[in-house]
Design brief:
The complex is a heterodimer. The radius of gyration of chain A is 24 Å and the shape is globular. Chain A folds into 3 domains: 1-91, no CATH class; 109-163, Alpha-Beta Plaits, CATH 3.30.70; 215-475, Fe-only Hydrogenase (Larger Subunit), Chain L, domain 3, CATH 3.40.950. A 4-stranded parallel sheet of chain A has the order 10-9-12-13, sandwiched between helices. In chain A, strands 11-15-14 form a 3-stranded parallel sheet, with helices on both faces. Chain A contains 19 helices and 15 strands. Chain A has helices at residues 6-23, 33-39, 49-64, 78-82, 122-126, 151-155, 167-171, 197-201, 213-221, 245-255, 264-283, 294-303, 317-328, 342-348, 361-370, 392-395, 402-408, 424-435, 463-475, and strands spanning 94-96, 109-111, 132-135, 138-141, 161-163, 177-179, 185-187, 207-209, 227-231, 259-262, 288-289, 333-338, 357-360, 418-422, 443-447. By secondary structure, chain A is of the alpha/beta class. Chain B is of the alpha+beta class. Chain B has a single domain (4-80), classed as Glutaredoxin, CATH 3.40.30.10. Chain B contains 4 helices and 4 strands, in the order E-H-H-H-E-E-E-H. Classes of the chains: A alpha/beta, B alpha+beta.
Chain lengths: 484, 81
Amino acid sequence: MAGISEITVIKRKVLKEVATLAWQGRIEEIDSLPRKLTNDGIKNYRCCEYKERAILTDRIKLAMGADLSDKARLSSLIQESESLNNQAQAQPMISIIEKACDHCPIEKIVVTNACRNCVAHNCLNACPRNAIEIVNNRAYINKELCVECGLCVKACRFGAILEIERPCTRACAVGAISPGENSTSKIDHEKCVECGACVVACPFGAISDRSEILQVIAFLKTGSFSTKALVAPSIAGQFGPMVNWPRLVSGLKKLGFSEVIPVALGADQVGKEESQELREKIKEGETLFNSCCPSFKNLIEKNFPSLATHLSTTKSPMLVTAEMVKKADPKAKTVFIGPCIAKKGEAKHAGVGLIDAVLTFEELAAILVAAEINLADCEPAVERITGGTPSASGVNFARSGGVMTAVTEEDGAAEIKKISASGIKDCMDLLKKVSKGIESYDFIEGMGCEGGCIGGPGTLVNTKVATRALRKTTENKGEDQFAS
Amino acid sequence: MTKIPVKVCAGTSCHLMGNQEIIEALENMPDQDLSRIEMGYTSCFGACEKGPCVLVGDKIIYKATPEKVLQVIKEELKSEK
């Protein structure tokens, strides 16, 4: 999460209003929601209220879990969205809201008014393609010759030449976003690793992910099975300074979850299994990559297929925890709650039959507010966690380096050559070196988000605050510990 | 010198609407100002629809932003002097 902008607030208001209608059993009123939102003050951002409402309608569609290609009225999408076999299920989780996309400039190298037509003409001299000439007393870039190398940008002593890039394109390290027809941005889902960096980066909020809040509310309101919350290790501090684990458990139970299970328990098991795997890999002279981060896994499978054999075959902590839960209660519905968009995709592929829905912390907060449950006011739950209390190393899966520590320090082997990278760009840089044989390691930890899961797109607090809270959870055996 | 009480609502609704930015802005205040406020949290002011809410002295700020809160604190500090 990169600060709370007006875009963040709009997204959250939409989630909250959709959740409120569903929670109160008034979801059939959804068609009037765009108008309500503009009346409540979401306006003046676009040319007119009509455009604002059209964009809000698309935001609502995504909040409902529908696909934007579905042009039907909002109210006709309800049934599909509440049931689990809706059409959108097979669609990618991240979409471009074309109406909201501002067609940001595509030209990458731009000469500004600051050009003084100086005598040195460093730009002209720096250009390897002779693409720059002086026209009308100013440097002019011939687009047909320019290869966008950026050397002129560096060469100009006035800083008069800018290198600009669409925020979404810049944020996408795998190069999955490019201008499509109409010059709005398009996602190439063959390349996309679902990290969500573009969702956070777009200042127009034109890229967003589909939520499953309607499905989860439908689960919670159905009495014929129990619904279990599987909460990611990155939960520490996410709900503010007054909310610890016992309060969260109490609030989620009030909401209707029958049990709240920390996924750090599954992480503990993953740490053990992966370290076993690592020992075998080392014997074979091979490298092992962690498999717990779905974006990192997607990155390897889609962009470095030759390295895929190094991926750990151990299931992710989410799936390991879900297996425990489903074993004990096969009829139960499992809802993973975390900071992650890519987990939504993982649930629909590797997680079929194990994970029934995924919520981000942000989406959970929207449901809680809709149900008028204030976690800060909840009486702390007193029961112990079935399956025991997760260890600090399981909890530390939430931050960059945590998986590496858990896996490589399991038997205290100090000579293991290991490295961790976080953020898709850093992961790519590392994988490029590894695939070319420039560097080699016994264990590589890759995390799709900077700082690890606590830097995820679905978080409620920034990485600094989350790190502080995580440290408190792992170091302080006091009230923030899992067992109350 | 009496300290000015500042209470930030840490309820789930205000949290969703962005109280975190305000908490951070308060923590990053210059030391000489920070030492003159008594920062704390409350679980709800009962005005969730108008959140985030922050209480500065006896003034409640609705739809609070870091700028609004810091401005009110600055004025309070001035009148205290």
